[in-house]
Amino acid sequence: MRFSQRSSWRNLVKAKWLLRVYGILAAGLALAGTMPAAQADPVYPMPDPDPFYAQPADIADHAPGDVLATRPMPPLLIFPDTAVTLVKFRSTSSEGGPIAAVTTVLTPREHQPGGPLLSYQHIINGLGADCAVSRVLYTSDPNLYVKEAVALNAALRRGWSVALPDHLGPNFAYGAAKLGGQITLDGIRAAQRLPELGLGNSPVAMAGYSGGGMATAWAAALAPRYAPELKLAGAATGGVPMNLMKMVNALGLQPHPAFGLAMAAAIGLEREYPDRLPISSQLNAAGLAARNAMANGCTNEIMAIGAGHSAREFAASTSLIDDPTVRSVLDENSLELYDGVPNIPVFEWHSPSDPLIPVDAIVNTDRRYCAAGVRLDMDMNPSPEHLSAAVLGLPDAFAWIDARLRGEPAPSNC
């Protein structure tokens, strides 16, 4: 199986767009002096205007994975000969409450009833509705696209159906990794419960990289307790941030080009845990302006607004970093510290010199899985950094998934 290395992996920002983003931020900073000293309430994303995405009033009456609504969608040029179906389903928030979530199911012309299902957790570095995969598939914004379309088309042509969940949930809780795992599992449940998709008896695999890898890795670890009835063939996870506290220390405390991702994660986690992680109450005027400017942003906005900054610039106090309640939220979303292990084979790949994520947390998690008897295939590829590692590892990851879906015994190099 061959997958081309596309230039779409590069995160380029056009000059006109940069001027627009920095103009928004500059205006926010100019107004910040008139803001109250403390603005404690979290900032939530603008509601999606499409009623399909709304949380139904009777959501608590449904079980996790129950289908709430479906919508056939127009065909997509990037996925030829493939039907597209939006599926809204009941899932669970990080703290146990009922929520509605959405997955996009691609059904190829070659699909046969009972044919394989791949749940692919796309990277969603975003805080607003426009960043959702179900929206990105139909946007005209050239900065938003499904980067792995070539690989996914190869899977579709093999007759696999592909589910693409909006795994950040209705509040776009970027950073809430456990939530992403639960939504992923419930999205699989929903797809298999929808008779017209022909997936009720399908073998299922999961895959994802970086933020999508977080959701995938958490789904694999949570499945034995959260969704034990699912028959999962395996999970391929790449470039996974396994420890959020280590991420804070790496990206947040000193000026960093990717500080925007750390700040976005703080905003997203506050949305999911407003009482336990009140970040907004700790921000100074500049921090509030930056927060408001990226509150509905996707990757490019988030990266541009945060580039070269740090928590010390935007916070009136950094006391929350040492607060036990805050640390407990970070720990609860750190797979390195989770006491459960997958009961399915896992393929894990990363760059050993990745400057964006703490590699030692991945190594520690891999060792724990090996000690617990997980069939783990670890692949450290020669890429020196995060994004190219995704491209280099994806062909082997998909070849590994193909073997699992065909029922071949899983290798392990523990």
Automatic annotation (TrEMBL):
<keyword id="KW-0732">Signal</keyword>
<dbReference type="GO" id="GO:0016042">
    <property type="term" value="P:lipid catabolic process"/>
</dbReference>
<feature type="signal peptide">
    <location>
        <begin position="1"/>
        <end position="40"/>
    </location>
</feature>
<dbReference type="Pfam" id="PF03583">
    <property type="entry name" value="LIP"/>
</dbReference>
<dbReference type="InterPro" id="IPR029058">
    <property type="entry name" value="AB_hydrolase_fold"/>
</dbReference>
<dbReference type="InterPro" id="IPR005152">
    <property type="entry name" value="Lipase_secreted"/>
</dbReference>
<protein>
    <submittedName>
        <fullName>Lipase</fullName>
    </submittedName>
</protein>
<dbReference type="GO" id="GO:0004806">
    <property type="term" value="F:triacylglycerol lipase activity"/>
</dbReference>
